[in-house]
Amino acid sequence: MVKKDKKKKTETTKEPPESDIQDEVLVATTNLELEPEEVQFTDTSYTSASFESLPPIVEEPKAKKKKGKKTKETEALEVSKKASSEMFQWSEESLAEEQLKVEEEPVESPKKKGKGKKGKKDKEDIPAFEKPKNWKTMNKKEREAWMLQRIEEWRAEKEAEKQAILAGAKEKRIALAKERAELMAKDNAEQEIRRDILQKIVNLFHLFEKRKMDFENKKQLEAEWQQYLRCDGLPDPRVVTQMNTYLHVWKGNSACDDEELNRRCVEVLPMLEMLEEFVANSRQYTPLQAQSYNEVRLELREQLSSAIQYASYSLLRDLEKNLKFHSIKLATYEREFKGLRLNLWVAVRMPTRKPKPLEPDPEPVELSFPSMSVAVKLPKVIDGSCVCVRAARSLIDLLSESTRSYGLAAEMPNRYEDLFVFNVKEHVETYKLKKEQDDIRNKFYKEIQQKIREVENFLKANPYTKNEKEKEELDNLNMAEPPFLPDPRTFMAEQNDLAFKKYLKTCSVKTRSGEVNLRKYRICGGVLNLDLLTTPPQPKRMRDSVTLTTLQLPKTLQPMKYQIQYRAPSPPPAGVTRTPEEIEAEIKRVETEYEKLALVFIDLPQSVMWTEPPVVCQWQEARKLWTSNYINDYKFNEDKLTVQFRTGVLWPIGIAALRYSNLPYQGWDMRPDPESKGVLISVTGVSVTMTWLCLGNSVRLKWIANATTSALKEYFDKPFSVKRMVQVRLHR
Fold it and tell me: Where is this region: Disordered (predicted)?
């Protein structure tokens, strides 16, 4: 037995075959594999006879050494040979353990051991390490030992880094969840404080609004009683049925001369002012009442516009009776009504004579209307011997409300919702969104945990396989994050902004070329009607007080045919040079075309603050819009506040200014009035600064700084309601 053991001992000290060493080196230098779990054995006794069944070690032929420099692999092989011959001492116990390991290890297919791309194992991407200072003094064995130790350290560092990343990801998730919880708790606390403050403020405003409504109702009852005591036969604008009866009787009265027009202007304008105030304060009425007031108001405006047309026609029907003759060829009419100035200029048609062989060029007709600060020079193409020109300036705009760009295209949603209700709704929606986000995150993490358990169970069931894909999948699952979900409060604010921008888009109106958008501009100073008319047939007086008149239907004003659309050529593009002859020829062509157009001079009214050059436009009746397509050679004198232009049609003329020229506001100031118990409020805009005195239930305009005209001077120190003051400001 001793000899046999010695023989075994000598066999164990022999160098293992080179092929076995190569396999051992490959395992040591290839991809990192986790060590298989230790196999737990039962307490079983083993004898030497148990190892007799081991297969004998078969020596393989040694591989031929290649000439040349030794590579790292060959160095590693040599080091492993020496290490195996010197370090490994085989004993019976170790041999038994190796036998069990051999039985447990799976047998690799010979294809994987063969050479070629398919048989190669995936090598681990080991970085180039920095060599120590004593690298040159180290022998091969020491270098190999240092290299193996450094690789093991690098693997440990890599594993520790991966574990740190996983731990950091978990800590980050916990920190983010904690941060979200703290943020929502803080937001909830702030909302509670804000809700308490807003509730008190809103209750205070509701109290003031109730008092105001009570005051308005009391004021309205008193006005109704005063209207009843007057007993003037006029309807009460507060009663829609009375207004409808008034309109019905007015429409049935076909006769309308200048006296009738004067009476209607006196009666209707106060009614219109009252109805406009009702429409502006429509919140205190039911929707049906507000709609009825607005319909009556529009009908009243339309009827007043028709009355102006009928009165003009009635005046022109009998020139000898109604107009003032300056000569046998010229008659005029001039009268000022309440809110209206009406001028007529008529060249009476004379009997025709035989034309001369050479007729001289006709002289252009130049007209002036001093009461309206308007002058016009008619072109030569218009026969001045039988022309009729009407100039009428109405202080109220009776045309603009029929345009499609005047009113809002869409009503603002929740316009009268107070801030407290809005805040509560937003808070509820915010927490509802937070709960939905929490459900999304919980569902995501639940699915991830389930997948992680499945992969871990698979790895535990297969401990001796590499399972690289499963390990990578496990790492990815541990690092997985739910989809990005924004902060609920920020998200709700962004949604409110988007909803408001969407509403603004619905309010925008696409305008035609030359059309004036009344959401951007407003017609200031009323409307100027400058019309070329055909004189209706005149009555002929016969004997015995008999008068014969030709009846022309319809009994309305007939416009004279004059319409020339011309646009001056735009200046040449940059870099284009023209000869003086070409420039002179173009100027002559433009002047020739300009002679066919009417030249109009207008002094701008002083009741409007003109901060920028106004836009001159004309009314297209067929399309119901204001247009500037017929305006040419426009000139604005800022010092004298006059405009001059040429036009190819004589239609109603409007002077439009920017609606928001004084915006944005630069600042405001509020202080007590030293002379009364009121409060002075000053608002500074881009152009002017306005100051109001708020006293009781009224607002008084005190002064205007940096004004270009004497506008609104007639409204100083007069009490108005807030809505009425806004209307006065918009009309100026």
Answer: 1-23, 39-127
